[in-house]
Amino acid sequence: MLVARSLVLFVLAALAEIGGAWLIWQGWREHRGLWWIAGGVLALGVYGFVATFQPDANFGRILAAYGGVFVAGSLAWGVVVDGFRPDRWDLTGAAICLLGVAVIMYAPRGA
């Protein structure tokens, strides 16, 4: 159950961070305005809190593992939202990152 909770929190963190950054990008680079930027800032604030709900108490471990989720999530966001077509190297890199997440977060450790 703890692994499932952790995975859900990683997905929520990715949605908040990637979505927030995307909103700021749209507001500034695509000239959609300050409301988009404000929405992005709020989403990034939400991202900052999501990690605190992870079952593991080690900030460095959580953030290191989340980096792999961010990589894969960013590619997925690009596919779904922007029509990006990752190549095999993008997908290989994302798979390696997710393997790193699994090792960092879910490898058996001694008490």
Automatic annotation (TrEMBL):
Pfam families: UPF0060. It comes from the Bacteria. Coiled coil: none annotated. It is a multi-pass membrane protein. It is found in: Cell membrane. Keywords: Cell membrane, Membrane, Transmembrane, Transmembrane helix. The keyword Transmembrane helix applies. Its main location: membrane. The chain crosses the membrane at residues 33-50, 62-79, 91-108. Belongs to the UPF0060 family. This is YnfA family protein.
